[in-house]
Amino acid sequence: MARIRRWGVIVAALVGGIAAMQPHAQMPAPAPMRDLTWGKLNFLQTTDTHGWLGGHLTEPSYSADWGDYVSLAHHMRKQADERGVDLLLVDAGDRIEGNGLYDGSNPKGLYLYDIYRQQDIDIICTGNHELYKSWAIQDEHRYTVPNYQNNYIASNLDYINITTGKQEPMAPRYRKFKTKNQGLEILAFGFLFNFSENNKTLSVVQRVEETVKEPWFQDAIREDPDVFVVNGHVGVEMSEFNNTIYKAIRDVNPTTPIVFLGGHVHLRNATMYDERAIAVASGRYFETIGWVSLDGPLKKDEVPSPQPRDAGKITFSRRYIDTNLLGFYHHTGLNGEAFETERGRNTSNMIAHARNNMRLEELYGCAPQSYWMTRFPYGHKNNLYTLLANKILPYVAYDEQRVDIPRLVLINTGAMRFDIFKGRFTRDSMFNVSPFPNKFRYIPNMPYKTAKFIFDVLLSWESYFTDQRPYLMMLGIPTCELNIRRETFIAPKDVLKLASRSVGQARLSGYGEPEIVEGHTTVDGLGNDGDDTLHWSYDYHTQPAVVKTEMGVTEGEEPETIDFVFIDFMKGPLSQVFKRLNTTYTEADMLPYGTELLDVMVHKWVKENWSQEC
Ligand SMILES: *[C@@H]1O[C@H](CO)[C@@H](O)[C@H](O)[C@H]1NC(C)=O
Ligand SMILES: *[C@@H]1O[C@H](CO)[C@@H](O)[C@H](O)[C@H]1NC(C)=O
Ligand SMILES: *[C@@H]1O[C@H](CO)[C@@H](O)[C@H](O)[C@H]1NC(C)=O
Ligand SMILES: *[C@@H]1O[C@H](CO)[C@@H](O)[C@H](O)[C@H]1NC(C)=O
Ligand SMILES: *[C@@H]1O[C@H](CO)[C@@H](O)[C@H](O)[C@H]1NC(C)=O
Ligand SMILES: *[C@@H]1O[C@H](CO)[C@@H](O)[C@H](O)[C@H]1NC(C)=O
Ligand SMILES: *[C@@H]1O[C@H](CO)[C@@H](O)[C@H](O)[C@H]1NC(C)=O
Ligand SMILES: *[C@@H]1O[C@H](CO)[C@@H](O)[C@H](O)[C@H]1NC(C)=O
Ligand SMILES: [Zn+2]
């Protein structure tokens, strides 16, 4: 790619050549690093990548792409061979939905499956996102399952062929194999949490507590492998893992090491269920590649049996690797051209080609500054929802037939999914910020007082309804997105200082003192030294569930009635609220407002208001 090369030239003076990444991606940020601890058995883990295989083009700490990961894995496998140890790659699902690389084509995912398969993955399973839409389930069955053949594992998931009506396992229930270098016997499962909103015409998810009773499972856990690996689209703090599966295996295997590799909750977290069972989850959106290692006597015959407690101590280690190309260089000891493999480069090219075909780089405008979802309080000029309510909504919630009628416009904060970064705002950014196809609706001539009251109720529904209403919780930023922020803002700055002193910071060679930049500062169940990169923590502020703007309403002169405007997504929650408040409004009163989709209107707004160069 000519463009990639050009970046290479620009930074040649700095690092001796940065290759790969996507054209337009931000230069990676150097940072103080913690090294990886190798053991006899090592894992690289991805989960909840949600289409972000092009990397985070606007975030220097996470701007490596899937091709760079292909190169990284290649070198790590080679290192494993040289050390005489083993390395396994795992992926825990939710590979689709949430980024233009998947959502931007018609049909969706036209390019994603081929790009994904460029990475050899040893143990791969399904997330809930693969199972909502009929086409997504069929694509998963048609592409990902055969792409990964025996490595795809579906311990509690069946596929239903709609033509023949036949129900069969999505893929094998488990996999038993020997590792390449030490011949360790691994028995691997691939689970999905107790998910029930799947399309039941095409898939069946068995509840985990049922699966562990199945004869095949009971037989499998008696096969006496050296190590159990439970790959799962399950949070490490969820009882499917920590209770049901863990107990089932442990009951029969009192000392066998168990590695749980989880996901779903979109955060970096790790814990030990006992001193021979670790559980690790590695975040979301291809910001993080997890590293887990086990050392000690792993082979059954290395341990004099039966000596449960002193059977030989196993040590575990975990790291969360930022998807930062300079970090990859650090962990492999390789640079630029030496780091980039042909297959990695080809993969980066495939991504660039797909992004190009989908016009993801199409420039809509240039954001004059960054706007954050949670790093600033609502009302602050750097807050995304302040921008939305004060500047964008008045212009995008617009109906030509009713421009002269005062309106109150509501939008739920969950409708926005990602920060806006200073600089290029592209078709890609639009997918990241708001991936949902929403139109506006309205209730005409609602008494102004009622409209204001409804807004108040949505803002603080907990004080109106004592029961926790899931349909109202849906309005705010999804808890899984809040979790990641919680995980990242916990670490106080003194912890960071302490950590940086105690690890004896390795420096990326060729740099002066790297500056510490904002990013993940994880405190997980095992401590605060998990991140491979030292960062300052982000600030975090809770956001309201909804924000509003009022047009044509002047202070002191309240109108009698108003157009009550909101997005499609809020139809359900609002009708529930109307019912609870005993108002007469129903879904039948919610009429289309304007003709365009929200994202089409935002596109127009960006074009007209952010037209400066960048
Ligand atoms: C589930 O898939 C079937 C078969 O494609 C489709 O007809 C149906 O509409 C889907 N149901 C839902 C709820 O998406
Ligand atoms: C259903 O099964 C038939 C016969 O094996 C096969 O040809 C077809 O591709 C399958 N359809 C789907 C959607 O999996
Ligand atoms: C991380 O996992 C531990 C152990 O299961 C749990 O107690 C903790 O709540 C989790 N952290 C977050 C932020 O969810
Ligand atoms: C296991 O999960 C349950 C429910 O999610 C939680 O209450 C409990 O604290 C967890 N236990 C551990 C050891 O993480
Ligand atoms: C799975 O879901 C069922 C309800 O469908 C619940 O009763 C059960 O406790 C769940 N199991 C786990 C392991 O969370
Ligand atoms: C990379 O792409 C080139 C050109 O399409 C092809 O000839 C080559 O075989 C590919 N190499 C790998 C390792 O995939
Ligand atoms: C709505 O009506 C029900 C039944 O008449 C009553 O119990 C409830 O208190 C009313 N709710 C409100 C908010 O007025
Ligand atoms: C954005 O552009 C529109 C159309 O040109 C204009 O009416 C509006 O005032 C602009 N908004 C801002 C906040 O500049
Ligand atoms: Zn996910």
From TrEMBL:
Q: Which PANTHER family match?
A: 5'-NUCLEOTIDASE-RELATED, SER_THR PROTEIN PHOSPHATASE FAMILY (AFU_ORTHOLOGUE AFUA_3G04160)
Name a Pfam family for this protein: NadN_nucleosid_C
Question: What residues does the Putative 5'-nucleotidase C-terminal domain cover?
Answer: 370-571
For this UniProt entry, the molecular function terms from Gene Ontology, in alphabetical order, are: hydrolase activity
Protein name according to UniProt: Ser/thr protein phosphatase family-like protein
UniProt keyword list? Signal
User: Would I find Signal among this entry's keywords?
Assistant: yes
- Return one Gene Ontology term, BP aspect: nucleotide catabolic process
Q: Does the keyword Signal apply?
A: yes
The organism encoding this protein is Cercophora newfieldiana
Q: Which residues form the signal peptide?
A: 1-20
Q: GO cellular component annotations, sorted alphabetically?
A: cytosol; extracellular region
Taxonomically, which superkingdom? Eukaryota
